[in-house]
Write a structure and sequence with these properties.
This protein is an alpha/beta fold. It is built from 20 helices and 11 strands. Helix 4 packs across helix 8.
């Protein structure tokens, strides 16, 4: 967002922000965002009115610009109005190289400002060193490996965390250390090993952070914002590559970051690792030609000339545009061999190098992308270790239902309800499966789901 603001000031454009898909607000995300954040810079006009944004998008001179299509900072705008789905553009906004406008400021407003001030006030921040480890929240977005692109990721992430702790201790040299992160294990380990370390009082969830934010948007946002403004108040911060700490430097441009880059994409080193990573990326972004060229290079390095040629041809087909979803799925199955990625992840789970939450999220991505058989295959490999993981069993139920395996879907849905009885999604799936099976208990489960949904809405409001 900051890079787009810089681009707008550079080229005399306004920055229109449609924030309706943000998960951090329980109700109206557009209003919630502008009621709690203010982005300002000399010469920058920010548009937040949705009617005005819709009118701009409907004008004939508006051009949709794919977020993976390069847009360089000095490049003349390709159209008077550019519509970009998402904020990511690698040429315009690579992490740690965003060109923000002079005088750019991010400020808090309203309830969020009060919450953050209450959480971080009363402490002298002038000589505090921060240690921040963001893990389990969109590593690929941050240009880092994740469990799917690096099957040994759990061990690599633990080693990266240990390196952060050691570096933080060396740099602090007795000064106070703020520990921040989105995983409970890292925060606990750092607090135990770092003399004089402290963390802001908050609940670090033992679930993927985005699931926590969707379930507790206001609390999660307040905790994340408090961490970010606290990190911005430090003298220096030891961290992994992360847009989170990049944002802290936008709040405080004097903040010095010491970035540990060992988890960056493509740092695996050996040919097998790079081929696995390239296959996974072809699945994640099949409509992005560079992933197929990367796959061709990885296949060629392994001596598979035929596969490399097929991947090069796929890159040209994708670049030509207009490919249907079934065509892209066929390429991912037959050229990228996504089944081999799933097989390797299953082996990693058997070896105990488990990233269970990440594996579940990948299964969710497989299911939503149409690879239902592979989603079921991966979920079955995880089942023995997820007895009380309600979202896992809900996902399993949905997967079996799509495959027409209704008895298994019913069993998985019952496990989901047992693990999370107050979650309406689990009961809704169970009610639907029971109805498809002709079970008279479907109506009772549907009523229970409606009751849970009402309670959930009351809690969020």
């Amino acid at each position: 967002m900051s890079a787009y603001a810089g681009y707008c000031v550079r080229h005399g454009m306004a920055l229109a922000l449609d924030m309706r898909r943000l998960p951090y607000f329980a109700k109206d995300a557009q209003t919630g965002f502008f009621d709690t954040f203010a982005l300002t810079a000399p010469g920058l006009r920010v548009i937040g009115d949705l009617d005005e944004i819709e009118a701009l998008a409907a004008r004939p001179e508006c051009r949709n610009w794919h977020r993976y299509r390069p847009l360089a900072f000095e490049q003349t705008p390709p159209a008077p109005i550019l519509e970009i789905d998402g904020v990511l553009n690698r040429r315009l906004a690579p992490w740690y190289a965003a060109k923000v406008p002079p005088g750019y400021r991010i400020e808090l407003k309203g309830w969020l400002k009060s919450e953050v001030e209450a959480r971080i006030g009363g402490r002298d921040w002038r000589d505090v060193v921060g240690v921040h480890h963001r893990h389990g929240n969109g590593e690929i977005l941050e240009s880092r490996e994740d469990f799917t692109t690096a099957p040994d990721y759990a061990a690599r992430a633990a080693a990266a965390g240990d390196a952060l702790i050691a570096d933080g201790a060396a740099r602090a040299a007795g000064r106070p250390i703020l520990v921040a992160g989105d995983t409970r294990d890292f925060v606990a380990r750092a607090l135990a090993r770092l003399p004089g370390a402290f963390a802001l009082p908050q609940h670090v969830p033992d679930v993927p952070i985005m699931e926590y934010l969707r379930a507790q948007p206001a609390q999660g946002l307040a905790e994340a914002a408090a961490d970010m403004w606290a990190l911005a108040s430090c003298t220096e911060v030891v961290c992994v590559t992360s847009g989170f700490t990049e944002a802290a430097t936008l709040i405080n441009p004097r903040l010095k970051l010491h970035v540990h880059d060992g988890l960056r994409l493509g740092r695996g080193g050996n040919k097998t690792f790079l081929l696995h990573s390239a296959r996974a990326h072809a699945f994640y972004r099949p409509d992005y030609p560079p992933v197929w060229r990367d796959l061709a290079e990885a296949l060629r390095a392994m001596g598979d000339a035929e596969g490399a040629q097929a991947s090069e041809t796929t890159a040209r087909d994708v670049a030509s545009g207009g490919l249907s979803k079934p065509a892209l799925e066929r390429y991912v199955r037959e050229i990228a061999r996504i089944d081999l990625v799933v097989a390797q992840l299953k082996q990693s789970l058997r070896d105990g190098n488990a990233e269970a939450h990440a594996a579940r999220q990948f299964a969710q991505r497989l299911l939503s992308s149409g690879y239902v058989d592979l989603a079921a295959d991966l979920l079955e490999a995880m089942a023995s270790t997820r007895a009380m993981d309600g979202p896992f069993w809900t996902l399993s139920a949905l997967t079996y239902e799509k495959l027409g395996r209704l008895p298994q879907a019913c069993d998985a849905a019952r496990r989901a309800v047992a693990a999370t009885p107050g979650v309406p999604d689990a009961r809704l799936v169970l009610a639907r499966v029971l109805k498809r099976m002709g079970d008279p208990r479907a109506e009772a489960e549907l009523a229970a789901a409606a009751h849970a949904l009402i309670n959930q809405r009351r809690t969020k409001s």
